[in-house]
Design goal:
With about 500 residues, this protein is an alpha/beta fold. Helix content is about 45%, strand content about 15%. It has 3 domains: about 260 residues, HUPs (Rossmann fold), CATH 3.40.50; about 160 residues, Isoleucyl-tRNA Synthetase, Domain 1; about 55 residues, no CATH class. The protein binds one RNA strand of 74 nucleotides through helix 1, strand 5, helix 8, strand 14 and strand 15.
Length: about 500
RNA sequence: GGUUCCGUGGCCGAGAGGUUAGGCAGAGGUCUGCAAAACCUUCCACAGCGGUUCGAAUCCGUUCGGAACCUCCA
């Protein structure tokens, strides 16, 4: 199914037709996590959003090289200008009395586990900053050679005014006004080695107590935060690739500086299209550890948080994020999650019913056109800047048709088998391959639990046939206290974990 | 203060000049030994005030409210 893909380019602030650099292939770079603590729930939303984008590109038949880095050095916290800043990984290593690489590994592992829970596909390449020190040093050299970097006391800074003079367009992504930047009145702190407040470090000299450091032409030190993405995207995707993504919060300074570095080093803007995902709010407010308005992925799943009345499964959370557009803020509330949980179940049950359908043999029946239109509609919504909520709405309209057929409110005589087969394929492709959902209700497929449950339900079914309501209710109540819901249908009984 | 963006029914959330978004909840009904579940039907809307237009939730102005970045926090 070839459709013209449109996407909203943050760089131009316009929706544009997508044309890859090399036909049939897509180079996609997404800024990954800084692995100094457990992954933030908002970060999970970002990676779920890009997973959807990745999956849809794959579904369209593109050969996608998806690069998502791990930042394990260079991301500082504190005041850079006064050298009070400390590397996030190093700081955590000091506090936990571990090697920095142990910290990076520990939280990388945790991050991977969480991504797996949310059914996020692994990227094609997951490079880490510490594994690409030579590439970063090389890029600093290029930047200096091109006149956009200067050394001071063993550190190297990107010369923003020099860059502006040549290229004029610094700040395009984040809407910064060049003149304002140049005239910035903020005083440089005495200790600062920077010539201009807007300059930023691309190589930093390490202090004696600093653990993570490497030899370089300028000092024993470490690369600046933004540099790893520039170096690694260039290495694996080339000087000019298709899509660069990340969270909205990274637009400035991270992505702006990345662009400047790439242009400064290679003369090329790195990516043709920039995609930014929006923030996840909790009860209408930004998540913040300090004021308690915060929930971790684990707390959300287990329900161990004052912000939720119960735990929500990873797929419920994933479904929840699909109901909004990736570029909109999404407000996480207990009520909204409970609604998502039910909606998710309705979608999955609809698919289950659908997969057993058989239509009429002869082609072209009255309902075919309506069904086809909804299927095609859901695909074209996805092609329009990955509009999952709109596509999902169409899928739910299909669910209503499916249920009507199932309940004989509509007749199978009015649907051709071709149409049913197409619907079966497209519907399950959509929810499993594109949306990346999975059915959690019946795990343990064919295992011991399923066998036992079948036995129990058979016994209850016999009791009901004999109008032995005492036994049948006893079984139902006992299962209910184990959080298993028994569902009685015309064809018999089934069960689902609450 | 600067740069972006948003305010949609009880809740979440699409849409974007004239047409039903969708999910959840509510109401009515079907089914059922009872119930639950499931299914069907259905009510409720575009922050306030001006303006443009034959027509505005959608465009413009303005007021109020919220969010992000600029400063450690995804």
């Amino acid at each position: 199914m070839k459709v013209a893909l449109k996407l909203y380019n943050s760089l131009t602030r316009q929706k544009e037709d997508f044309t890859p650099v090399v036909e049939g292939r897509v180079g996609l770079y997404v800024c990954g996590p800084t692995v100094y603590s457990d992954v933030h729930l908002g970060n999970c939303r970002t990676f779920i959003s890009f997973d959807l984008i990745y999956r849809y590109l794959l579904y369209l038949g593109y050969k996608v090289r998806y690069v998502r880095n791990v930042t394990d050095v260079g991301h500082l916290e504190g005041d850079v200008d006064t050298h009070d800043a400390e590397d996030k990984i190093s700081k955590k290593a000091r506090l936990e009395q571990l090697e920095p690489m142990e910290i990076a590994q520990k939280y990388t592992n945790g991050f991977h586990e969480m991504m797996h829970l949310f059914n996020v596909l692994p990227p094609s390449i997951e490079p880490r900053a510490t594994g690409h020190i030579p590439e970063q040093i090389e890029m600093v050299e290029q930047i200096i050679a091109n006149g956009f970097g200067y050394e001071a006391n063993g550190s190297v800074y990107f010369d923003v005014p020099a860059f502006i003079e040549k290229y004029k367009n610094y700040g395009q992504l984040s809407g910064r006004v060049v003149d304002d930047l140049l005239q910035e009145t903020r005083d440089l702190k005495n200790q600062s080695e920077k010539r201009h407040p807007a300059d930023f470090a691309i190589w930093m000299k390490a202090s004696d107590e600093h653990i993570m450091k490497w030899n370089s032409p300028w000092s024993v030190g470490f690369p600046g935060w933004h540099l790893e993405c520039s170096a690694m995207s260039t290495k694996y995707l080339g000087e000019r690739f298709d899509i660069h993504g990340g969270g909205n919060d990274l637009k400035f300074p991270h992505h702006e500086n990345e662009i400047a570095q790439n242009i400064g080093a290679c003369g090329n803007t790195p990516a043709n299209y920039w995609l930014h995902t929006n923030m996840l709010l909790l009860n209408g407010k930004k998540m913040s550890k300090s004021d308690g308005n915060n929930i971790t992925p684990v707390e959300l799943i287990t329900g161990n948080s004052p912000h939720v009345s119960k735990g929500y499964s990873p797929m419920t959370v994933r479904f929840f994020t699909l109901q909004s557009h990736y570029s909109s803020q999404l407000d996480l509330t207990d009520e909204a999650l409970a609604a998502a949980e039910k909606g998710f179940r309705r979608l999955m049950e609809g698919n289950k019913a659908l997969q057993s359908f058989v239509g009429s043999k002869d082609g072209n029946k009255p309902l075919d056109a309506e069904i086809d239109a909804l299927i095609n509609g859901s695909f074209s919504e996805m092609a329009d800047d990955f509009n999952a909520p709109k596509a999902l709405a169409k899928l739910f309209e299909l669910v209503t048709i499916i249920n009507k057929l199932n309940d004989k409110h509509l007749s199978f005589d009015d649907v051709s088998n071709d149409c049913i087969e197409r619907l079966k394929n497209c519907f399950s492709d959509f929810i499993f391959k594109i949306f990346g959902l999975s059915d959690e209700s019946t795990n343990d497929g064919g295992g011991v639990v399923d066998g036992l449950m079948q036995l129990i339900l058979d016994i209850r079914s016999d009791a009901r046939t004999n109008k032995d309501w005492t036994t049948s209710d006893k079984i139902r109540n006992a299962l209910s206290s184990l959080k298993i819901v028994v569902k009685d249908n015309k064809e018999g009984s089934s069960w689902v974990k609450e």
